[in-house]
Amino acid sequence: MVKAEGVGEATDADFGFEVLSGDRPVLVQFTAEWCGPCRQLAPVLGEIAREEAGRLKVVQVDVDRDPETTVAYGVLSTPTLMAFRDGEPVWQVVGARAKRKLVGELEGAGVL
According to the UniProt record, which cysteines are disulfide-bonded (predicted)? Predict the structure, then answer.
């Protein structure tokens, strides 16, 4: 899994703690080692994680290593991005995005 600086990792074991119980929104990237678009998205997520650190937490879930969480949220493709607020999914999109577009979509959904 390609992980950028500032981006955390969530697993089946700690997803509840890392994502569902936070005091700020969490952007989750469901990713895999073999996923080319996921690798393209990694630096974009790293920039967002650093720039929005006070307002947004960014983590990755490896779909191969953490199948329970992947299945629980109905993830069928990678990369899937899902935003959570107060323990509930509030926004979802499939596919890589340019940074400006992704930030705009997060703002439009009220995540940022």
Answer: 35-38
